[in-house]
Amino acid sequence: MKFFIDTANLAEITEAANLGVLDGVTTNPSLMAKEGITGKDRILQHYVDICNIVDGPISAEVISTDFENIILEGEALAQLHPNIIVKVPMIKDGVRAIKYFTEKGIKTNCTLVFSAGQALMAAKAGATYVSPFVGRLDDISTDGIGLIAQIRKIYDNYGYKTQILAASVRHPMHIIQCAEIGSDVITGPLSAMLALLNHPLTDSGLAKFLSDYKKGNG
Ligand code: E4P
Question: Is the pTM of this model over 0.85?
């Protein structure tokens, strides 16, 4: 399973990359705004900066909602760097644009997916990735992880190549559950990834090994 980090924070991206287990990055307009990255030129430069830190798929989201402008924006994003994945919202013009990008060889990430039907449409349009938002479904008392399982089954039934990118992952159990189901990718905060490292028996075991070594070796 691939690990993407869901942030526009360059320090966090660098920390995750240095860990050696990071495969890619997802961003969205809210994450860009959170880092104070505003203005078209600055936003485009920020994507390039991210591409220079991580050698893997970097999702860059369009903000247009009509077909013609999604195409213009997506083509400009795709030209920034070979690793850019054009992130397109799950709307009618977005699905049309994904089909267009697929035929042009431009990779896409269909975002804001909350149902199996939407995931099926993204796959039929040829999306490279589909992003079901696990955490936001959980937030409204709906089974986010259940949706990942449902999409996995549908894609496997027909051999769709679209990769399931479980998004809005909030904690380590989301990551483990996604891995059990066979999600292709998860994207979440650095904290969720780092939390996978923790176990109290590791801490106490290491403390004992080190103290026993010290006793014998001074
Ligand atoms: C998807 O790519 C989104 O950027 C993201 O995962 C949304 O997560 P959130 O619900 O934590 O904002």
Answer: yes
